[in-house]
UniProtKB/TrEMBL annotation:
Transmembrane segments: none annotated. Coiled coil: none annotated. Residues 43-54 have a biased composition (Low complexity). Residues 1-148 are annotated as: Disordered. This is YqgF/RNase H-like domain-containing protein. Residues 7-25 have a biased composition (Polar residues). It comes from the Eukaryota. PANTHER family: 30S RIBOSOMAL PROTEIN S1, S1 RNA-BINDING DOMAIN-CONTAINING PROTEIN 1. It holds the Pfam family Tex_YqgF. One of its GO terms (molecular function) is mRNA binding. One of its GO terms (biological process) is translation. Residues 66-84, 119-140 have a biased composition (Basic and acidic residues).
Amino acid sequence: MMRRPRTTTAKVVENSTDSDLSTILISDEDSDEWTPAEPKLKAPTTTAGAPAVPGEKKAAPKRTAKPKEPKAPKQPKPPKEPKVPKPRAPRKTAAERKTQASKVVKVSRTSVLAGTKRKNIDEGKNDDKAAENKEEKHTDCGPSTNMKKERVSFIVSEANQADMWAGEGSSPAGLIAKKEEVEDFTFDEPCLKKQKTSGAFLGQPSALPSSTANVLRNELNMNWDFIEVLSTLTCVEQWVCVNIIRLLREENTVPFMVRYRKDMINHMDADAVRDVQLVYEELGTLSKKTQSVIQTLKKDGVLTVELEQNLRSCRSADQLDHVYSPYKKGSKLTKARRAKALGLEDAASLLMNTPHTLDLRTWVKPGTEGLSSVEEVSTGVEHILADLIAKDPETLAYVKTLCENSFVTIQSSVSKSALKEKEQKSVQDHKKPGAKQNKKMDIDKFHLYVDFTSNIQRIQPHQTLAINRGESLKILTVKVNIPDRVKNDFTRWCIDNSWKPKTFAREEHWAIVRSAIDDSYKRLILPFLTRNYRTKLSSAAEKESIAMFVSNLRRCLLVGPVRGCVILGVDPGFRHGCKLAVLSPTGQIIHTDVVYLHNSGQQREVDKLRHLMMTYSCTNVVIGNGTACRETESVFADLISRRCFHPLDVSYCITSEAGASIYSVSPEAVKELPDMDPNLRSAVSIGRRVQDPMAELVKIDPKHIGIGTYQ
């Protein structure tokens, strides 16, 4: 019943000539209000819910209303109608493709004729049949061509064959297919939220008040741009940094920002947001420390405008300590401060600005320490210039750049005190053998770093931690080797650029400048670079060790539990025997005992163990990896191979017992197992680590689990 109107109308359309089709195609170029339906063959059915209005070309005819048409069954049925659906079959020849398109046009015109008749019936038109058929032919051009556009464009887009209409000239079908592609592209555009995000990746924030950004930039009261430094240190765009800081100041948590403020943070993950938060807090701490130092120096009466500017220009805690250390209470007066106290600061200023007017003999004051001769005056001026050079931000930045482009190494060796004690060991061994043995053992632990050298950029985090620990124990001596080429390039740059006298200078004045540059590099800049490198390496190693600990801990806690079976936990040992704990499938303690599997009466202990396992149907044995682990494992493996536990199918595994001894005497263990011996508590803990690792390991202090990079 549904196909009869289409078949009868199709016959009428098939009788039309090719000239009629060309006329329909040409007349359809003038229609501009056509809106394409969804690119599916069943589009007329899905959009049939819209009401039919005469002259409107957007709504497709509703097929379910076809049984209401009274005139459709009167037309004869064509015998060739079953061949119409064949345009969906794949075609590889160009001629067959054209034939396919023409057949689709015929089918679309057929459905539109039926729809036009339904429109006329619903509107209540009472014209005669001839006038109605004539009206159908006149109105057939618009709707049928629209359906043709829809069908043809769908075939082109589905098969990705835009060249199907090549050679047809300015064919309307080709233009229609292109228009359909544009509409499809518009339909596939992302939503408004995605558009904001795509703009954000180009560095275009959607809502960033300039006043807020300025407040954030100036809130620290430093000489550098806070947002710019934060962006540089974290490699995050500036507008994203501003948004993250604003969200943090509004007391938003990192999970909230990652889940519900994705556009504001440029779709960053939680770890990246935490890194920005950490650097932001570090810069805030640096600002507060700088303000405290300035207030302290102001109270002491040693704060100058130049010193304050140098303090506010520091971008790290190391730079701040480098500038502030000479002025700390209790520290000795530096050479530069002693020279300034003698009044030689003006002489240093004249040497750099107007050296032709400087006469060092006028600054000589016989009987005054530090000014009694021209040599002492020259030395004081050198110290002041060296201090200025070492605290100049541009100079420090340049020398850091030179080091980055050079082969800087870190070297460790045995300290003199350790060598001296090692030489005296043979003499004093009989007096304190225990202490000397412990010291020897410590030296043996660091045998890999007795003569160790590595590039500063290639050293591993665990090596850095080992070197630091050896240095703290006064076993190793560590130093950073910077090549001499850095010094030569630095000296040449200072003389030719930044620290060259502005006017003509005599040879003795140039000698003072060269000596000041050399003294500044050796005495001030080189130790600063060494501290800077050591601090960076230690910080990176600590972060890596934390990340490694997190990864290992996650693996330990997420180990699959062994459920539904009775487990025998074994804490192996020689002298005190192997502690046993039989645990139920739910972790309850069924029985505890001690067997001595490594003594003379082994057979009696084996029988005791077999009776215990047979009594409680224990099929899984968990052995701790501590003392006597391998010996206990060999005993159980031998018993299983000899089928001593038959008919039980017994298997064993080895697990880490790190922290079990410490847990057995902890307050938590006493509360949980109050009436049990500490040795048996460790066996219970070992067994439960296999039954439920997460529930058992959370009872132990993380530093005792033994999964870190360097314990």
